[in-house]
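Sanity check

After download, print the first record. It should look like this:
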Amino acid sequence: MHIRAVTPIHVSDTELARRQARYDNLAPPGTTIQLENLPARSDVPRQLADATDIAASDAAVRARFTELDPATVDVALPDCVLDPGLEDVDALPVPAVGITQLASAVVAALGAPFTAVARNQAIADELDRIIGRYGYRGFEPTRVLDLSFEAIADHEMWNDTVSGLTAQIATTPIRRVLNGCSAVDVRRDDSGVTVFDPTRLALDVLAMARNHDLLAGEQAAIHV
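Expected structure tokens:
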């Protein structure tokens, strides 16, 4: 199965390579993931700092998805927990799914409350909107980490900040937290709260769907 992932912003060559290496590490057996960078155009954001950036990201990812070739791509995947570009997926030339769409479905199916953490308030607000749109039950509003864009590549800083929040979350009934960034390696702690990597979980779900022939259909040409 060949997955084409598309960044939600234009990133540097160094960041693109880091994210590609992460996908190479997470790819289940029989799956290849090619990460594509959005172009360095004026209408493509360099980070998701506010609602304007998020809307521009959604439009740019959507435009790229409409150009994908079903002869070479089995599944399109936004490289972002905000699942940009996925409005009206039936109109796209290849099947497209979202990281949060898949990962949250699994956690919601367990029937226990869960929440998420996000780098800034704009991302948190959009993540709440997206999960609300999916209709997953048991989701509590996203907690904000108040981190800079550079923290995405600094996993120690990111995870230290998350650990501070999980200590607070541990005093509530919530025991599952979606890590609200697709490009961060998650570190486990001893708080009793599981912070899960939505990218890893989403890729596992896609592999399971492939193994059960659930991706086959009129729109999908699965090459395994």
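If your output differs, re-run the checksum step. Summary of this record's structure: The chain has two domains: 2-98+201-211, 101-199.
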